[in-house]
Amino acid sequence: MESRTKIARYGNSLAVRIPRAIARDLDFREGDVVTVRSGELHLVVERAAKSRLEQRLETVSHLETEVVTGPARGNELDG
Fold first, then answer.
1. Which helix (H) or strand (E) holds 20?
2. In the Cβ-directed half-sphere of 42, how many Cα atoms lie within 13 Å?
């Protein structure tokens, strides 16, 4: 997909707005972290790589509940 947009001022920086259709296609949301790289005549915006923990947590379908096995004993009391 291709779209034209303007560069705007954002504080002391410049900003490029991502058109809604492209943001929707790439599932970009406000607050997402991205990596920005420049080439000779182009700019690349990529979704930041997620940590291994974030990737694994996405596979969890339900959270486990704490299992209580009785009163605290030994080193468990030193908390």
1. helix 20-26
2. 2
* Element at 26 (helix H, strand E): helix 20-26
- 3-state secondary structure (DSSP) of residue 15: strand
CA distances 17 to 6, 37, 49, Å, are: 7, 16, 21
Q: Which two tokens stand for residue 6?
A: 């303007």
Q: What is the pLDDT of residues 30-53, one digit of tens each?
A: 888 889 999 899 999 988 877 778
- Closest-CA residue to 50 (of 36, 71, 34, 63): 34
pLDDT over 80 at 78, yes or no: no
DSSP character string of 42-67: -EEEEEPPPPHHHHHHTT-SSPPPPP
